[in-house]
Amino acid sequence: MVKKIVIVGGGIAGIYVLRSLLARKSDVEAEMDFTVLKREKSGWVSTCGLPFALRGWYEIERTEINKPQFFLDQGVDFRTETEVTKLNLEQNSVTLKTGETLKYDFLVIATGRKQFVKETELEGVYTFNDEDDARKIEAALNVEGVKDAYIRGRGIIGLQAAAAFSTRGLETTVHGGSPSLLPSSLDPDMGDMVKERMEKDGVRFILDSREITAIKGHEGRAKSVVIGEREVEKEEIPADIVIIGKWMIPEIDLAWEAGVDIGESRGIVTDRAMHVKKGKRHITNVYAVGDCAEVVDAITHRPRLNQLASTAVTQATVIADNILSDISGQPGLYSPCEYCFGPTVADVGGVLIGSVGVTSEAASRAGIKTISGKATKLTKARYFPGATPLTLKLIFDAYSKKLIGAQMVGEVTVAERVNELGVAIRAGITAEEMRSMERCYDPSLALLVDVTIDAATDALGITPVY
Ligand SMILES: Cc1cc2nc3c(=O)[nH]c(=O)nc-3n(C[C@H](O)[C@H](O)[C@H](O)COP(=O)(O)OP(=O)(O)OC[C@H]3O[C@@H](n4cnc5c(N)ncnc54)[C@H](O)[C@@H]3O)c2cc1C
Question: Is residue 437 part of a domain?
Answer without folding.
Answer: yes
